[in-house]
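G., the chain you wanted modeled:
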Amino acid sequence: MNYWKQVTAKNSMTYNENLSGYVIVLRDNRLDKMPFKYASMANRKYASMTSALPGEFIEPTETIYTTQIDLPFTKGGQIIMDDNCTMTIRDIDRVLNASTGKLMAYTIYLDGGVPNEFA
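Predicted structure as tokens:
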């Protein structure tokens, strides 16, 4: 991915944040869903993974972009995607404005994912 595209993404139409998701947050001994908007940077991919258990399993991965920097995104946290699939945050990259150095957005790398049958 081109770094300059990441820097200018908020001011351009490169990533339209038209998908809605929820960050799952633990607050006062209860789970809350905090809504946010995001754009999909890399469509969901399914890769065969090996395991300590016999056989292989399929692990979905996805990369998203969001300008909602006030939400508590953390590694290992979970996000409910637009299609009601719950995915785990593997890594987070900060997207900074090149001229001011201020945080503009996050690029979030997700792993796993199981359709939420109870949503």
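Residues 3-8 form the longest helix (6 residues).

Shout if anything looks off.
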